[in-house]
Every structure is written in C-alpha cells, then in structure tokens.
Specification:
Elements: H1 2-12, H2 29-45, E1 49-55, H3 66-76, H4 81-90, E2 93-95, E3 98-99, E4 102-103, E5 107-109, H5 120-128, E6 140-144, E7 147-154, H6 157-178, E8 188-192, E9 205-206, E10 209-210, E11 213-214, E12 216-219, E13 222-225, H7 231-251, H8 260-276, H9 279-282, H10 287-305, H11 313-320, H12 325-341, H13 349-353, H14 358-363, H15 371-381, E14 405-407, H16 420-433, E15 438-447, E16 450-457, E17 460-466, H17 472-486, E18 494-498, H18 501-508, H19 516-530, E19 535-539, H20 547-558, H21 569-589, H22 613-624, H23 628-631, H24 633-636, H25 652-658, H26 663-670, H27 676-680, H28 688-695
Parallel strand pairs: 8-11, 14-19, 15-18, 18-19
Antiparallel strand pairs: 1-7, 1-8, 2-5, 3-4, 6-7, 9-10, 12-13, 15-16, 16-17
Length: about 700
C-alpha cells in the first residue's frame, strides 16, 4: 500500500528522471538500449565519434545512504508520518552468516535497503535519481535502477574526452557524497566509430585508474560492438539457444516424446523468449548476421513437431502457428513504436516521431537508419499510414475509491430466453421509476472498413466516425465517454444506456490496468459529479425495439464525420497483429506447390490433435509431405525413390491415393472417392493409421 501510494505521487509530480526506466509502469530495459542504439546510429551517419561508459556500482543496494533517502524524501515534499514510517522501516536491520550448520552472531546493517522488500526498489531509485542531473551539457545518459550508462558524441575526440572526463569526475564526487562506490575495475568504455583513418581512443580516468576501452560489452543483456553489427550478440545468443535446444531434444522423441503443444510451450519459454529480447534493436543487423538465428528457430519448431529434416520451413511455420523471426521482429518493433508514442514523457518519444538526419540516411545507404526510420519502412511495407496514439491516461490515486452508479434492471434477463416485448415492457416501467433522469443512449458499430459511434440525447443525435483500427469494444466505451462530455453544459441527472455488457464490466472494475478510455470515463464522471450532476449507467439489450437505442445504432452505422483520429495502444497492437498475419498469409499463398497448402490454406491457427506422440509425428509428416521413405534421398545425395509398379516418383499422395498396389486396402479402409484432404485434413480419417499399418508404410515414415 505504501509503495503504490509513494510511486503514484512521484510519477504524478514527475519527480523521477525520464531517463530512469527501472520498475516503472510501461518502461523497461529496451527503452535504454534503444536510446543508446539511436544515438550511435546518429553519430555514425553524421561521421562523429561516440564514446559510451558503462558504470558498475559496488553493492549498490547494501551501501545506499539511509539518511540520504530521508533527506531526498523531505526535499520532494514528504513530511509527517511517511518519512517516520520509512525511517522505522530502514533502521535496526540485522543479518547472520551461515557456514554449513554454523550460524554467526547477529550483526546490524548500518546502511543499505532491505533486499527483497517491495519498498526497497523505489527507495533506491529515489536516492540514485539525482545522478543523471550531474551530467554536463552535451553528455547524455540513462538509468535502469543502478545500471548507469552515459555517452557523448562529437567530431573531435578531444572534445568528447573532456566532456566525458568532466562527467565521470562529477559522478564520482556525487557518489562519494551519497554513499555510492563506483568500481573502477568493472566500469568500461566503448568507442563507437565508422570514420576511416587512424584515431586514438579517449583516455578517461576513474579514481586515478584508466577506464578500459573494450571492443564489445554487454549492456542490459545486449552485447554492443564498436561497429554496431551485433554479430557478437547474435553469436552469443545462438550458443545460449543451442544449449536450451538440448532440453527439447530430450523431450521430443518421435515415439515417446511429449505432446507437440507442450513442446511448443517449452520452446517459447526457453528459446523464443531469448530471441525476442532486444529484437527491436539487434534486428537492425544485416540479414547475413540474423540468418544464424533462423536455424535455431527452425530446429526448435521442427523438433517440437517431429517433422522430417527436409521439411519446408514455411510448412513448419504454419503447423506450429509460429511466423518467421523476421515477421516476429517486425511485430515487436511496431508494438514498441506505438508504446513509445503513447508516452509523451518517454525520452525516445520525439526521436521516433520526428527522427533526424533523414537526408543523410537517404544519401548514405550503407548506414543503418535509426529506429524511427526503420519503423517507417515497416509501415510502408504494410501499406498503412502512421496514426496518433491515445496518450497514456493518468491513474487515479490508489487511496481514492472510484464509485460509479449502476442500475441492473435487465442483466438478470438473458437475451436467449427473453422476448423483445418483455424487454420493452420492463424498460417502460424502468423509465417510469427513473423519470427524473434524462436518458442518454449510446451505441458503437464496427464493420468492414467502418467504425462508428453515436449518442442519442433527447432529439439530438451526435455521431462520429472512428479510426478503422478501433475495436468494437473501444467504440462502445468511447461512445460512453462522448456522452459524458456532452453533459457538461447541462444541469440535469442522467442515465447512460448501453447495449455493451463488456463496457459496463470495464467501468465496474476500474484499476491501473483498465482501458485508457474507461479511465477517461471515470475521470469525466468525477468532474461531473463534483459539479453536482448525478449520473448512472445501465445495460439494455440491443435490437429489442427500444427507440433511443435503435436511433443510436442507426446513427453509428452511418457516421461519416471523423473528429478524433487517435487509436488506443491496445487496439494499435491488435491491428499490428492482424497486419503481420495478413503479410504472413500472403507469403503462404505464394506456396502453391507446397503439399500442406492444399488442406491448410490459411495461417494463424494451429491444428490441435489429441493423438499419441508417434501418431502425431506420423500425421505431421504426412501433411507436410516429407517422410523418411520419400525424402531421405535428399540427405544422401541419391536419386528419388520410384514406385516399382507405376514407375513414378514416390510421394505421400501417390501412396495414399494413387498407387494401384494398395487399391484393395484403400477400398476396405476408406471406401470410394477418397481425397487427400479427407485423409489428412483437420479431422483425419479414423482408419488412416490402420491403412498405413496394412501397407507397411507406418514403419517408413
């Protein structure tokens, strides 16, 4: 409780540095990594040097100055009981050391914050927050809790060296005053440069020790190299993923292994999570570098399916419902882009909206563009224009109870068993009881290429067309918000009627994770109630002949005027998912000669089977069309096997449908006029495995 309230006030007052990303809502390590990568790309294209220093603080949590925390809290404006509570929380902390079964005496911790406590992180962040303010003009930096990085760029290395030395000196002095000790052994610097000719690395001192200049270094889990090729990181990532693949190999025997769905979950947890992390940044590497990770992705999916080694990779993607790493990185990149756009205080916000050096990047094509330009290329490739994102809505104070009034006269009557006459009768009785409330009807609609919303208030109907990426739910919650905004000029009591149960449920459960428009509704409701208005919300059934609802419904479907062009973050990310799915579908549609395409024409869904592992593997290989009998020759550099009777190349379709050798078995098990889709489709033929056993093919798959 104390933590949530303290964090809320700090965020509300914007006291925390925007360059601190640690343990803050909507922020993460990728923000800091992206900020550094963006600065390096800008330095490369403008032919500048950029030097970055990665600081290491020794036992930062254990050496945090307690009095300094209380002093900073007082400086922010916290007085009274909270500082006293924090002081009591920090003092009289003890510890013991155990060696084997022997315990030492009790020792009291003089400084530091308790490890593992929910309050410790925010108290530490408060104490270290001022370090960013020590940086001189021209030097930039970022924090993830105690991971501090600073960098400076310039055409003259002497200028860069002087600026960074000034910054290092100030940070060191600040650390001594505030109880932080920076390790001169673990602190490293990197010189990023693509300029030709000889140029010396800078000489920087920390505690009279030279900071080593390294060729590559790991920063927040991502390995940066001096040319920003990300080749060292990709190679490291591949080695780590191959180690994890050994677990899947142990679980994925073709006759005894786990279910495919279970293996895919293991793959996503152990390997795909590693490949995803930092993909929006290292995805800027060249295709030849990134191809090293494709083999890991392919092998993990192939082992999970039990597919034969020669199986087409596009077929494996579709059966696993897992797109290529390239498509996945595009999706993650767009999601990150829209998330940054929704936070105007994000340090990358204006860098992605208005990226600089566009003319230089267009002339110097050998230079990889910055994140904002890369996103623009992806959007153009998907044939969509950029659009504004709804700004993140401030959360309600955690100590404030949000109370909205709801009327539940209709919710106990299910639409499946209640006639429209009953609904209308109950509504008329309901309106008689609440005749002193002005009715306001709202409705949203979504169809192919059109999203609309409407509010019917008396004889007035207001309708708006919304962005095509709005979800149906968002259109319903937006029309409630629109209705609330129209009440500002009245001095009446209102009941807002909606036929969306999901919108009512969203308003009943307002919290920090609520839809931003639901938060805006609660915010507007609070403003109106403070003015003296009484407002209630009521669900009514749609298409039940209630005139106000029908009027709003018709107006929402014909709305043409677009006043608001924004899209909530959740809807934007859902639109990205659909757009990437369409791109994947277009790639799959090009695979017309692919054997799987015949009975699995669409992507985006996996075929779930409840078969034993061996049967599941057999069915998978038959669907893909690659088995040991028909395609082993590709591994041995041999000619393809031929049917002894038909003198045609052996294939799964030939064996199951065409070869006259098996006509009698085929007739007994399947009957006449059987197709390959009947045998291997989403619901495979019940006698398929018996037929395979009859002809002896089951042992050769």
């Amino acid at each position: 409780m104390v933590n949530s309230r303290l964090v809320h006030v700090l965020e509300k007052k914007k006291w925390l540095s925007p360059f601190q990303s640690g343990f803050r809502f909507g922020r993460g390590t990728i923000d800091n990594i992206l900020l550094l990568e963006n600065s390096i790309r800008e330095a490369f294209v403008s032919k500048k040097h950029l030097v970055s220093i990665l600081f290491d603080m020794e036992k930062a949590y254990d050496k945090t100055w307690r009095y300094g925390i209380l002093k900073d809290l007082y400086g922010i404006g916290f007085k009274g009981n909270l500082p006293i509570f924090i002081q009591n929380f920090l003092k009289t902390r003890s510890f013991r050391v155990r060696i084997g079964n022997t315990l030492s005496g009790v020792f009291y911790q003089e400084e530091g914050v308790p490890q593992g406590s929910v309050l410790s992180v925010i108290l530490f962040i408060i104490k270290i927050n001022e370090v960013i303010k020590q940086l001189p003009t021209g030097v930039n930096g970022s924090l993830f809790v105690d991971d501090l990085e600073i960098h400076c760029s310039g055409e003259d290395m002497g200028f860069v060296e002087r600026k960074l030395q000034e910054a290092v000196t100030k940070i060191s002095e600040w650390g001594k005053k505030n109880g932080f000790q920076i390790s001169s052994q673990k602190t490293v610097a990197m010189h990023f440069c693509r300029r030709r000719g000889l140029h010396l690395d800078p000489k920087l001192l920390l505690h009279d020790c030279t900071i080593p200049i390294v060729r590559d270094a790991k920063y927040l889990g991502l390995i940066f190299d001096s040319k920003l090729t990300f080749k060292p990181h990709v190679n490291y990532l591949k080695r780590k993923c191959i180690q994890s693949l050994n677990i899947i190999k142990m679980l994925s025997g073709t006759s005894y292994g786990a279910e495919t769905s279970t293996l895919l979950k293991v793959y996503k947890a152990l390997i795909r999570s590693k490949l995803d992390y930092g993909g929006v940044v290292y995805g800027s590497a060249s295709k030849s570098v990134l191809q090293a990770l494709d083999t890991v992705h392919h092998q993990g999916l192939r082992l999970s399916l039990g597919a034969f080694r020669t199986s087409p990779i596009q077929s494996i993607y579709v059966l696993c419902n897992e797109p290529s790493l390239e498509l996945r990185r595009e999706r993650l990149t767009l999601n990150t882009f829209f998330k940054i756009k929704s936070h105007s205080s994000h340090p990358m916000h204006y860098k992605v909206i208005n990226p600089i050096y566009g003319s230089l990047f267009s002339l110097r094509l050998s230079f990889t563009p910055t994140f904002g330009f890369r996103v623009g290329g992806i959007l153009r490739n998907l044939n969509i224009n950029d659009f504004p994102i709804l700004e993140k809505v401030d959360e309600f104070p955690p100590w404030k109870d949000i109370k909205l009034n709801f009327i539940d006269d209709f919710e106990h009557l299910p639409k499946s068993t209640t006639s429209t006459l009953v609904y209308r009768s109950i509504f008329y009785e309901h309106r008689h009881r609440f005749s002193n409330y002005e009715p306001v009807f709202t409705d949203g609609s979504k169809s192919e290429g059109h999203v609309g919303t409407a509010v019917a208030m008396g004889n007035t109907v207001v309708s708006e067309r919304l962005h095509m990426f709005f979800s149906f739910f968002t259109s319903e919650i937006y029309d409630i918000y629109l209705a609330l905004t129209k009440m500002d000029s009245f001095n009446k009591n209102f009941i807002v009627y909606t036929d969306s149960k999901s919108a009512i449920e969203a308003l009943k459960k307002i919290n920090t994770l609520s839809h931003p428009l639901a938060l805006k509704c609660a915010e507007m409701h609070q403003y109106l109630t403070e003015k003296g208005l009484t407002i209630a919300f009521c669900w009514i059934p749609g298409h039940a002949g209630i005139s106000g609802n029908e009027k709003a419904d018709q107006a929402s479907k014909t709305a043409s005027l677009m006043l608001e062009n924004f899209v909530p973050l959740g809807d934007a990310q859902q639109a990205v998912r659909i757009l990437i799915l369409k791109k994947w579908q277009s790639i799959w549609d090009e695979q017309q000669v692919n054997k799987l395409h015949e009975f699995h024409p669409s992507v985006g869904h996996a075929i779930i089977s409840n078969l034993y592992r061996r049967q599941d593997v057999i069915l998978t290989r038959l669907r893909i069309g690659h088995t040991r009998l028909t395609h082993k020759h590709l591994l041995c550099s041999e000619p393809p096997p031929m049917c002894s009777r038909c003198q045609s190349i052996l294939s799964v379709k030939h064996i199951l449908i065409e070869c006259p050798n098996f006509n009698i078995c085929r007739l007994n098990r399947f009957g006449r006029n059987i197709t390959i889709r009947d045998l291997l489709g989403e619901n495979p033929h019940q006698n398929l495995f018996l037929f395979l056993k009859d002809i002896g093919f089951d042992k050769l798959i």
